[in-house]
Amino acid sequence: MYEFLTFDVADRIATITVNRPDKLNALNDATIAELGRAIDEANARADVAAVLLTGAGRSFIAGADISELESQSPLEAQRRARVGQAIFRRFETSPKPTVAAINGFALGGGCELAMACHVRLASDKAKLGQPEVKLGIVPGYGGTQRLPRLVGRGAALRLLLTGDMIDAAEALRLGLVDQVVAPEALLDTARTLLTTMAANAPLALAGCIEAVNRGQDVPLEEGCTIESDFFGLLSATADMKEGMRAFLEKRAATFIGR
Ligand code: COA
């Protein structure tokens, strides 16, 4: 079903592993298309509550596949960027939490896809960067837009204009990743985080994600209106009643996603 990635479900967590280790998991067009199918599959499946994205071998994703970019015409390049941007956006707008477990190189499109995930964990061996300027291009999968939003304009422009790779400790300092752990602890840490998230009310998770996404680039007042609408809507759910009743009865809540 997938040629360039694996898709496994266990304990309500879908693990998507980009699997071209001999090419350091570089994203050819076919892999990008499969990532789109994989996030759609995770969101469609009732047995999946959260999504873990990682890479096979020593790399997370070493960027777009340069062998495909080399011969692109301007219009092909523009289309490639738009297709990839739309697929990465599906990770960002996924109603189920997405966590990138950055096990190695997250360069170019790899850094961009990690930034489109909701949370980023990194192994202390990870290296991140946007090296596109070394190839004569700009990032095409949202890097010029998400990087300054995550780390601020100065740090983003430093990374974009130098093309330098940074290590996990510096990525943590900048806020490009949220936590750094030993390589052997990476997947377990990601699964523990996702399990914590997945125990919460699914519609509340989706509401937080959508409120953050839709509120990010609008005036605060408008963002707060988006938030209060979700706050109101969720009060119509059985899970809201269950969550509050469970608290008052001093027991764990059982959520049903309605
Ligand atoms: N596109 C296509 N192939 C890539 C790739 C990419 N982005 N990144 C790595 N590969 C391939 C290499 O060509 C090599 O293939 P080969 O064995 O058939 O020659 C294989 O993956 C291993 O990479 P290699 O360069 O030998 O490993 P390394 O440990 O010496 O260096 C990197 C690792 C990540 C520093 C280096 O591969 C690199 O700079 N990659 C490109 C990063 C980049 O510019 N990404 C943005 C693209 S827009």
* Main β-sheet, spatial strand arrangement: 1-2-3-5-7-10
Sheet with the most strands, sense and barrel status: 6 strands, mixed
Instruction: Give the number of DSSP strands.
Output: 10
According to CATH, the fold-level topology of the largest domain is 2-enoyl-CoA Hydratase, Chain A, domain 1
- What ligands can be seen in this structure? coenzyme A
What is the subunit arrangement here?
Answer: single chain
Question: What is the SS-derived class?
Answer: alpha/beta
Mean residue pLDDT? 98
Approximately how much beta-strand content do the residues carry?
15-25%
Give the helix tally.
Answer: 11
Fold topology:
Elements: E1 5-10, E2 13-18, H1 29-44, E3 50-55, E4 59-61, H2 66-69, H3 74-92, E5 98-102, E6 105-107, H4 109-116, E7 119-123, E8 127-129, H5 143-151, H6 153-162, E9 166-167, H7 168-174, E10 179-181, H8 186-198, H9 202-215, H10 220-234, H11 238-248
Parallel strand pairs: 2-3, 3-5, 4-6, 5-7, 6-8, 7-10
Antiparallel strand pairs: 1-2, 8-9
Helix pairs in contact: 1-3, 3-4, 4-5, 5-6, 9-10
Describe the structure.
By secondary structure, the protein is of the alpha/beta class. It has 2 domains: 5-198, 2-enoyl-CoA Hydratase, Chain A, domain 1 (Alpha-Beta Complex); 202-248, Orthogonal Bundle (Lyase 2-enoyl-coa Hydratase, Chain  A, domain 2), CATH 1.10.12. The protein contains 11 helices and 10 strands. A 6-stranded mixed sheet has the order 1-2-3-5-7-10, sandwiched between helices. A 4-stranded mixed sheet has the order 4-6-8-9. α1 packs parallel to α3, α5 packs across α6 (153-162) and α9 (202-215) runs antiparallel to α10. The chain starts with a strand and ends in a 10-residue tail after the last helix. The model has no long low-confidence stretch (mean pLDDT 98). Coenzyme A (COA) is lined by residues 23-24, 26, 62-67, 105, 107-108, 131-132, 135.
